Records
---
Amino acid sequence: MKKKLIVQKFGGTSLSNIQKIQSAANRIKKKIKSGCNVVVIVSALGKTTDYLQSLINKIDINGDAREIDTILSSGEQASSGLMALFLNKIGINARSFLGWQIPILTNKSYGKAKILDINVNFLKQIIKNGVTPIIAGFQGISEELRITTIGRGGSDTTAVAIASKLHADRCEIFTDVDGVFTTDPRYVKKAKKINNLTYDEILEMASVGAQVLEPRSVSLAKKNNVPLIVKSSFRNIEGTNISKARKIIEKRNVSGIVFSKNDSKITLLGVPDKPGVAAKIFGSLARKDINVDMIVQNISVDGKFSDLTFTVSENDLFRAKKSINKIKKEVGIKNILPDSKVAKLSIVGIGMRTNAGIAEEMFKALAKEKINIDLISTSEIKISVLISRKHILKAVNVLHKVFKLSDKIKK
């Protein structure tokens, strides 16, 4: 019988000290002894990447991106070596590999490189020879033969990409939480673990602020139909299964509530209402790799001007304002009003596709608590609103109660 092939990814919180590395190594050994082939992807230990970034910031935050990638990728190199060392100590034939050794080929977008291809023939031979590969996540190699990194949370993307190319039976993402919850349990005591989610649901959750999985990894898993499981590194309990369709039919319209306090709002007053203006504004932001999320435009009564409001990451607020200032006179913008005291709140659920009245229920609940809504955006299975940051805790708890997310799921 052909052995199952499992890809296991361990995040930084799962490897923050020797005891946790030992615990992860024992999990890997248990899976191998159960008769599976295992490929392991590791992140940097604990807060290593943050520490390395702080050193970079002290020298030159805007330095050569290629050198910055070389520095940031070193954390995963240490993790892969330590894990291989520990596995060999407990009787598992393991070997560490860096992205360039596989190789994991990427483009030249240093800092957020895109994976172009992975040489799985090499990995298949390693596995055939009875070796368990321990692969440094988050990194690859460009056509310039330079080390690249694929963005924060990139180890998730590495794991899913390798699982896809190897046609693995599943990809297990180990983290410091028990799975995906109805909302952040640090803010809502009655938050519950969700047993099953679709790719679409977790993709929407990840895209609006849920930090359990990196959005690109979910998109890749959906595209290649890679079964995902998010589970705890520290407790032997069932995690959250993520697949194309629900394993059970749940009578729940909203699956979870996600919020982000890392958003900022920019309002442009007196923007000439004529063709090409919006393209110039958002084009200037795109050229600086600044992502824009929610957008609302209000046209004046005479139809000559509009007020344009949109959101960007709080980290991009200064750069976004600077970019727009450069084209302010050219475009004819009268004023720029930045606001960093906002938060984005989203409800997500596959049941929203076929059930009306969810938005009304959400808006009524917020209105009852006198929480004003600045912006609204929707998709088939998501409603996002922008509110004052000071109201976010109250809003999350209210909506969690309104949509009965603490209740037992009816089948």
---
Amino acid sequence: MPKTTRGRFARLERYLQQVKKDVDEYLDSDEYKHRFMPAHILDAVYSYIVRTSKTLRPAVLLLSYGAAGGDGSAALPGAAGVEVYHTWTLVHDDIIDLDQKRRGQPTVHAEYLERAAAELGYDRSAAQHYGLTIAILTGDVQQAWAISLFGELHTKRSVDAALVLHLISDLTLNVQTTLVDGETLDVQYSRVPPDQLTEEAILQMLWKKTGILYEFAARAGCLIALGRWEPTHPHVSALGSFASVCGLAFQLRDDVLGITADERSLGKPVGADIREGKRTLIVHNAFETASAAQRAVLLHILGNRDASQADLDAVTHIFWETGSIDYVQRLATEYAEKARRFLAELPVSPYRDLLYEWSEFVVSRGV
């Protein structure tokens, strides 16, 4: 991370590194590994997990656990579960978006296309299908593993069994259906003329894709600290609302970085959203403020997977000219500021301070 943010968020960075270490150590166990077969599935299941990442969702769960008075490692299986759950959504999302890189390395379906050709002698068509097959099955295994990890809150940390069942039910019936809703809308919206979508509709779609899992992580951490299923408890509500709004701010910043970052820091090609025709809020705002000539350029290039670098540069230039990138960044910052107000409901603690810092970090990444 550049110096400007590394110094500012040094304490949070240290905490995130410790969370990454603790979660990785928990997941790096033969207890799990011997169940993931054959070797291609085993390698694929751990592929994204072992790569460099911020482990933000597990951190939110553990920080919320601490902010609500939790002590010790009781919440660690839940943090590991959130990380694995998030990972399967990435594996499947990469299939949907046809992305070739994740965290600077090949996506699962891209990696196993190449391995099928090199190791199994498949022709290109068969290898491509094999890569997609391994990625789908990998996500299936990870989803099941995530649910099992939440079960370990009870079997390994003696968290109340009824609470654990409620958390699993919430994850599978509320979070998952909301995520799928948002992902489906994201795909559908890419074929809808930009002027037929509203800002509200796009924000709701973005929240479903990202905000819901952050909200769950915060609520789960707080509930584990309470030791009982009390979803209307003021601290549960406050932390859930905080993470929910921050999750939307995170996604808005992500969309900005998808246009303005460099590929090395982004971990995937810059401009992928343009080639995929994603109806981000940047696109929506640009269409609202662009000239007729600029709209024509946008309509010609957005959604063209063969768009050249010159095409991407032309669209990016319009985004800057119309003020759309600045608009979305300002909105992300406003959401983060709004989210921080919910933290006033919680007692003063180092964990609350870190949550405050995290809310600043999510809209400052890449600066």
